[in-house]
Every structure is written in structure tokens, then in C-alpha cells.
Write a structure and sequence with these properties.
The chain is mainly α. It has one domain. Helix content is about 75%, strand content about 0%. It contains five helices and no strands. It starts with a helix and ends in an 8-residue tail after the last helix.
């Protein structure tokens, strides 16, 4: 009887003080300082290339690899989709490298040029599947493009805070 009474008391919470639960609130990271007019000009010059070409091409790169792996396994169709993308990333790297950059954003600029190079290397790696049939190249390419996406997010947080994140 005593065991049943103690069990019932615990289940119903009778005779015990409720323990308050404290919520742990993580403070939000501080907002980055606003960009100077020179920095804003750089971000504005890069934005149309970033949004209109780089993000779209990165999406086409991912979808080409997925379509190959899931649907058709046609290496020639894959290569036909990839060759123009390699040229796009190469051309974008040259265009971005030519944009005037304030000294304060030179590191961000260099990171952006590097991520474009990673995308270009990823395409080149994927094209190796056509040469030797080894689909392991797709994994290696994914690693490179994954690093490019990580860098793209970091650069984007500096230049265009609050913008959407690439997939």
C-alpha cells in the first residue's frame, strides 16, 4: 500500500514542489559593422555576377551531378552540361579578379576568387568521369564544391548580410 501511495504521489505531483525550468537564451552574434562607401561599391559591383551567374551556375552544377547519378548515367550528356559551366566559373573568376577592391575587403575578394576556382576544379573533376568512367570523381567533385559553398556563405555574410543562403 505504501509503495502504491508513493508511486501515486509521484505521478500526480502531490506533495512535491514543482521545480522551475529555466530557459537558456543564447545571445545573437553581433551584427557585422556596416560597410564603408568603398566596400558598398565593391559589394554592389559583385552582386549581379554573384546572384545572376555564380549562384545559378552552382545550382546547375549540382543538378547535373544529381541527374547523372540518379537518372541516366550518360557521361556524354553530363559532360555536355559541364563544359559550359567550367567556362562560366573560369570567366567569372577573371571578372571578379578585375573588380576594384578596397584594401579592407581584399581578403574577402581573395576568398571569392578562390571559391570560384573550387567550383571550376569541381567541374573539371566531374568531367573525368567521361574520360575514365570512374564515378568516384563525383565524390571528389562534391567535396570541392562543398568547400566552395561554405566559402560562399562566409563571404555572403560579410558582403550581403541577411541574404538567402545557397543550398
Amino acid at each position: 500500500m505504501a509503495i502504491v501511495a508513493i508511486s501515486l504521489q509521484r505521478e500526480l505531483g502531490i506533495g512535491s514542489a514543482a521545480t522551475p525550468v529555466l530557459a537558456i537564451v543564447q545571445p545573437e552574434p553581433p551584427a557585422p559593422p556596416p560597410l564603408s562607401p568603398e566596400e558598398e561599391a565593391f559589394a554592389a559591383a559583385l552582386w549581379p555576377l554573384h546572384q545572376g551567374v555564380v549562384e545559378a551556375s552552382a545550382g546547375r552544377l549540382s543538378s547535373a551531378g544529381i541527374a547523372f547519378a540518379i537518372d541516366d548515367h550518360d557521361v556524354h550528356r553530363l559532360a555536355a552540361k559541364l563544359r559550359p559551366l567550367r567556362a562560366v566559373f573560369h570567366d567569372m573568376r577573371e571578372k571578379v579578379a578585375a573588380i576594384a577592391v578596397p584594401p579592407s575587403l581584399q581578403g574577402v575578394h581573395d576568398r571569392y576568387v578562390t571559391l570560384l576556382s573550387l567550383y571550376e576544379q569541381s567541374v573539371t573533376e566531374m568531367l573525368e568521369v567521361e574520360r575514365d568512367g570512374d564515378e568516384g570523381h563525383l565524390v571528389n567533385a562534391q567535396i570541392k564544391s562543398g568547400h566552395a559553398v561554405e566559402e560562399l556563405v562566409k563571404v555572403g555574410d560579410i558582403l550581403w548580410p541577411g541574404e538567402h543562403k545557397p543550398n
